[in-house]
Amino acid sequence: MKITCALSDFDFGRMSSDLDVVLYGNSGDPMRGSVGAALKHAIAREKVAPAARAWDLLSLALAVVSSDLAGHRDRSPDGWTREFELTVSVVDAPFWNANAETLQRLLAYLSTDRWTLRFVEGGILPQPDPHSEHPDEDCIVLLSGGLDSYIGAIDLVGQGKRPLAVSQMVRGDGEKQVAFAAEIGGGLRHFQANHNADVPDPENPPSQRARSIIFLAYGVFMATTLSRYHAGEIVTLYVCENGFIAINPPLTGGRLGSLSTRTTHPVVLSLLQQILDAAGLRVRIVNPYRLKTKGEMLRECLDQNLLGAHAYQTTSCGRFKQFGYKHCGRCVPCLVRRASFHAWRGEDATQYVYENLALDDDEHAGFDDVRSALIGIGERREIGTARWLGSTLSSNLVTDKHALASVVERGIGEIESLMLSLGVR
């Protein structure tokens, strides 16, 4: 699928595309897509001065999100792998074209699609506000509304840091993000945005496997606005996720590549760091929980009172919207969540649609994710962790392989303990 993403004054007619998408504006044409119109105004309201290449990275991320929404997996030859030829207008086209191969590797690993990237001139670089602000926070933390990012923000404040919270607004989580930012550390400065991607004939339900790139781009973008960045210092972007989900090992062979997402996998973060370094963007990406299970994160959180009061309000479910903004209780993220609460305090106030997984039917114990978890638990016990993981940690971009294998082993152990407690067989 050929897609061109550019500003509204771009001459789309000179490009041969299946879909044109207007960046930072409205298309005014039902056959065109649009993305980021409200985002541009949200940034302007902040009165900040981000780096030029941070704008370019944001433009690329918006283009990727639009492509992910426009591509239909069921129309691909194998029913899954899509092929994108994506052209994006940026300020510094020569730099991004020179680094396109690394970006293509990153997107391919993240989404399991094939990407060909091309960059052209004509990107956005607004004149900075004459009274622009340089926030004095000392780091950035992504705040999704999920349990891990909530713990991460709490712990950063507990360690004496002053994070600026960055959120991708999602229906069902937007109010939670605001509430969490307001209650942590007496209130965090909070940048909350929405890409508002809109394309004709979108995939339904959308795959959203590449959605993390926009969240990361927001974080990088805001990192370059901080006063310490403008003083020439490095700014840390904290991406907080437990090591088990970050690795997200395929529970069975049938889940390889298709159902195991890679949002914060070490390969993704490593490739993005390479891009940031090449771009001269002084932002360091850190996942402080890469060697922790979700249960360990809960047990070791620095403010147990705050966590105990609000942990159940966070969102983990992979089908949260599908079930009326409730946790299904049976998808892999829900299983990991339930296992972590079991490992923490043995009780969980979260409301789950499918509470009793011991019921022997297709909706509970027989549901695919539950069965896959049971099969994975059995296979790992039978053949050992290293063989069970297979090529999951094989990339030379993955360091500390033994430590990561250990956190995966402890993570599957938490799920096994949950299953035993629920009587799931």
3D structure, described in words:
The structure is a single chain. The protein has 425 residues and is α/β, with parallel strands linked by helices. 41% of the residues lie in helices and 12% in strands. It contains 16 helices and 10 strands. It has helices at residues 37-46, 52-70, 93-98, 100-111, 147-158, 174-183, 212-223, 227-230, 243-247, 266-279, 294-300, 304-310, 332-344, 368-383, 385-389, 401-422; strands at residues 2-6, 19-23, 33-35, 83-90, 114-121, 139-142, 163-168, 190-193, 235-238, 283-286. Strands 3-2-1-4-5 form a 5-stranded parallel β-sheet. It has a 5-stranded parallel β-sheet with strand order 8-7-6-9-10, with helices on both faces. Helix 5 (147-158) links the parallel strand 6 (139-142) and strand 7 (163-168). The longest helix has 22 residues, at 401-422. The chain starts with a strand and ends with a helix. Residues 255-259 have low confidence and may be disordered.
List the helices and strands and how they pair.
Blueprint: E1 2-6, E2 19-23, E3 33-35, H1 37-46, H2 52-70, E4 83-90, H3 93-98, H4 100-111, E5 114-121, E6 139-142, H5 147-158, E7 163-168, H6 174-183, E8 190-193, H7 212-223, H8 227-230, E9 235-238, H9 243-247, H10 266-279, E10 283-286, H11 294-300, H12 304-310, H13 332-344, H14 368-383, H15 385-389, H16 401-422
Parallel strand pairs: 1-2, 1-4, 2-3, 4-5, 6-7, 6-9, 7-8, 9-10
Helix pairs in contact: 2-7, 4-10, 11-13, 13-16, 14-16
Mean of the pLDDT scores?
92
- The largest beta-sheet arranges its strands as 3-2-1-4-5
**Shape assignment:** globular
Number of helices: 16
Question: What is the rounded Rg?
Answer: 21 Å
Largest sheet: 5 strands, parallel
What is the H-and-E element order?
A: EEEHHEHHEEHEHEHHEHHEHHHHHH
Number of strands: 10
Unreliable stretches covering 5 or more consecutive residues:
255-259
The assigned structural class equals alpha/beta
Determine the strand fraction and express it as a percent band. 5-15%
Helix content: 40-55%
How far the N terminus sits from the C terminus, by CA atoms, comes to: 44 Å
